Amino acid sequence: MGSTFYYLAAPGTDTSVIDWFATLAEPPLVREDQALLWFGPLGADELAASPAEQPVVTLFPPRAHREDVWTVGEVHFLASKGRYPDVDHVRARFSRWLNAHKLAFQRPSANGGCDKWNWQLRGSVRNVAPTVRALPSGEEALSAGVYFVAESDSATTVAAVLHEVDRLR
Questions:
Q1: I want to staple 2 with a disulfide (CB 3.0 to 4.6 A). Which of 55, 78, 99, 108 is the partner?
Q2: Could you tell me which residues are beta bridge partners of residue 64?
């Protein structure tokens, strides 16, 4: 089973995550407009196999539904731990790098100051993300009152959050 990391950052302007991958000694091949990062050679055999068994990282950068409701950024290491030792090393380094940033949420919500922003995480974020870290631009957004939803939230869920945010303001 792979690993998923969740983070808060400004959509379109904060490129810290993709920049981190670019600084690796052997950076991944970036495909599909920075959404798919491929580690290693790309041949016909690799393309035919399941993505969960490949040295692939998918990146879902934050995006804005509007100026006060953004999605949480997601980084998915798809390959099972142990299958690709080099990717496991990158996963561990990325985890250490991301964990150096401010804790915005941790499930179950307790200690660490993460309860302060709990109310700004809407939709299914608190159900799907065990931990959410805030990059500096994400911290600024939290302080400015931006709300966050999960990338996977349906249009109906996002519409309900937008309506709720309008009601709260």
A1: 78
A2: 70
End-to-end CA distance of the chain: 41
Instruction: Decide if pLDDT at 53 tops 70.
Output: no
Give the chain's length.
169
pTM of the full structure: 0.88
Tell me the three-class secondary structure of 107-137, residue by residue.
CCCCCCCHHHHHHHECCCHHHHCCEEEECHH
Residue 14 identity (one-letter amino acid): D
Give the Cα separation of 78 and 71 in Å (integer). 20
Pairing of strands 3-8, 131-134: parallel
Q: How confident is the model at residue 65, as a pLDDT?
A: 94
Q: Tell me which H or E stretch contains 160.
A: helix 155-168
